[in-house]
Structures are given as C-alpha cells and as structure tokens.
Amino acid sequence: MRGTGAYLPEQRITSTELSTALGLDPQWIESRTGIRARHRAAPGQAASDLAAHAARDALAAAGIDAGDLALIVLGTSTPDELGPATACRVQALLGAGRAAAFDVAAACTGFLHALQTAAALLHGTPGTPGTPAPGNTARPPGGGPYALVIGVEVYSRFLNPGDRATRALFGDGAAAAVLGPVPAPYGITAMGMGADGTRADDVLIPAGGSRLPATADTLAALDHTIHMDGAAVRNFITDVFPRIVADALDTAGVKTTDLALVVPHQPNPKLVASLAPAAGLDPGRLAIAGQDVGNIGAASLPYALHRAVTDDRLYPGDQVLLAGFGAGLTWAHALLTWPPLD
Questions:
Q1: What's the pLDDT at 124?
Q2: Where would I find the Beta-ketoacyl-[acyl-carrier-protein] synthase III C-terminal domain in this sequence (predicted)?
Q3: Band (236; pLDDT cuts 50, 70, 90)
Q4: Which of 57, 106, 289, 313 has a beta carbon 3.0–4.6 Å from 308's, enabling a disulfide?
Q5: Cis link prior to 329 (omega < 30° from 0)?
Q6: Rg (CA), the chain
Q7: Is the pLDDT of residue 40 over 80?
Q8: Which residues fall within 8 angstroms of residue 189, CB to CB, at 6 or more apart?
Q9: What is the CATH number of domain 187-337?
Q10: 39 in active site
Q11: Residue range 271-299: average pLDDT?
C-alpha cells in the first residue's frame, strides 16, 4: 500500500440534529451507536464524484499520477447507475486512460474484496494489468504497476425518511488506497473472504434490479430504500467480527499481541468497539472513526485506515489487520505489514 485518501461531503448533520428531527431525545442516536455526525452528498453529487476526490487524495499521498494507474477497482452498493461501472466514471474524472476499471458488489465488505482482487491482478498473470496487452502501456516506467482501490457510498439517496434505524446509522463518503510495489517484508501477507447468501434479506435495497424493477408501486412502497433487520444484523456483527480476527490470525500464524492495529468495518462504532474483548483484542488497538461519519459502507474501513495514517498510528513494520463484513452476507480480512510511506 503506497498511499491513502478520503473525502466527505461538505454538509454535516449531527446526531443531536437528527434525533430532534426524528422526534427523539437529542442524545438517543449517539448514546446507542456512538455516532456523533454523518455527512450528506450535495444535490447532483454522485458516488463517482466522491470517489474521485478520495482518489486524488490517495494518488497525491502515493506520489503518482493518474496516468500511472494500471487498474481501478471500486466497491459500492450505491453506484451512479446500474451500469456502467462507477469505476469507469472515476477513470474518466481522473484522466486515468491507461487503467482498466470495474466495480465489485459486496456491500460494506466491498473495499476488502476490491483490495484482494487488485492485489491478485497486480501479480501479473497474462491478460491482467500486470502484463499489458499490445498497445496498452499500463505499466509505468517508474516501477508499478499501480492499482487504485476505492470504497464509496451515497446512502442518503436510499434512506426511508421515517426509518429511525437506517437514518441513525448511514452517511455518505469515500476513501481510497493506492497499491503498488513495496520491498520485502512489507505488504499484504494474508487474505481471506466468505459469504452466506441464505441471509441476503437481512439488509438490502429490494427494488431497482431485475427481480423487482422500478414501478409506481415500488416507489410508493419505498422499496428503493435500505431495508434492514436490525436484530439480525447486530447478531451477525457480534458473531462474525471475533471469528474474522481468529481466522486471520490462525491463517497467518500470528497472535493478537503481534497486531499493532485492527481496522474493522464499523456500522455501529459503539457495538464494534465493545467486541474487542471477545476477539481477544486490546480496545486501544482498534481504529474506530465511525463516530464522525456513521456507516459509510464500503468506505468505512478505508476511511478508518486513512484516519489512522493521518493520525500517525502506523509505523513501518507494524502488523495491521483489516476486518470487513456486510450485506450478502459477506466478510473478508487482509493482514498487512505496513510499509514505509515516503
């Protein structure tokens, strides 16, 4: 990993303001979730716009140009359109004409799925960005190739105004990371992922796809907004987070005490922080940033990682565990030995 970046829309809505608007005690949301505020995209501002801002931030941190990119992989569940891929919109906004670009759809686990996909492709099998086709000079002269991995959501367009649970949790935002060559022993040392599709109905946007296309009836029923079984999702998080940590450590042959930092997805920051003991973790080693942004889905984990970088919580040689989970149901992890970023 060579650089990180993030972007939050300008409009900020505090939990006190939102609680009051919902007819609740002013402290109701923050006391239950730990979320103090979330951001809302401006009218006309799409997922690709947020993603491009975060991408430019990450490219600047990595010290490379958009033209150096061989690959853009973007995770989102709130794309600009059902097609084409939002990553293609970002490619155009960045002027990254040499980069292949596509989306992955794994909801809040999207960034980690994108990260693992990009890392695998950068190893350079025939036909991937690591081995450019004739006429495609994707590999930059300075080393490379480089991949841009993005998580972005504009959840505010998909919320039921009367649903306290989803309005309390979700916000808008984007975060990105640049992958590229790093010297041994730095880099990604272990990865894993999983899914349980029998629980796809626990949290979803029912309408707008091929199963339930948009009609006047689906619009009237608010089926284009997020539907969530709060108790089921809470139980899933409580079970899966300690399991992800255990599986990752077992696969890599390391101990919890070897970890300098654990960066989890954080749909409910208070809940996730409370699970540290069950995962055998020192709560102080968790990177929790969701209190300032709410659940920004595929952007939550990379946003927390970016905050850890900018807050100087990571040093070369640190073992860092990224642990994601989300709708689908899906989960994933990546263990990194943090490189020097200069």
A1: 54
A2: 249-338
A3: very high
A4: 313
A5: yes
A6: 19
A7: yes
A8: 252, 335, 336, 337
A9: 3.40.47.10
A10: no
A11: 96
Q: Is 235 a catalytic residue?
A: no
Angle between helices 300-310 and 110-121 (to 10 degrees): 80
Residue 83 CB coordination number (10 Å): 9
With H, G, I as helix, E, B as strand and everything else as coil, classify residue 231. Answer: helix
3-179 and 187-337 in the same fold: yes
Show the tokens assigned to 48.
């690709």
CA distance 209 to 82: 8
For residue 336, give every residue at least 6 positions away whose Cβ sits within 8 Å of its Cβ, in sequence order, or none: 1, 187, 188, 189, 319, 320, 321, 322
pLDDT at 333: 97
| pLDDT value at 262 more than 80 | yes
Catalytic residue among 108, 113, 268, 333: 108
Give the predicted TM-score (pTM) of the model: 0.92
Arithmetic mean of pLDDT, 156-175: 95
The domain ranges of the chain are 3-179, 187-337
Of the candidates 53, 113, 265, 333, the residue annotated as catalytic is: 265
- 113 has catalytic annotation: no
Q: What is the pLDDT of residues 199-223, one digit of tens each?
A: 999 999 999 999 999 999 999 999 9
Q: Which two tokens stand for residue 263?
A: 């960066």
Strand bridging mode 330-337 / 11-14? unpaired
**For residue 111, how many other CB atoms are within 10 A of its CB?**
35
CATH class of 3-179: alpha beta
Contacts of 113 (CB under 8 A, 6+ apart): 75, 104, 106, 193, 330, 332
Both structure tokens of 211: 């199963």
Q: Would you say residue 129 has pLDDT above 50? A: no
Q: How confident is the model at residue 144 (pLDDT cuts 50, 70, 90)?
A: low
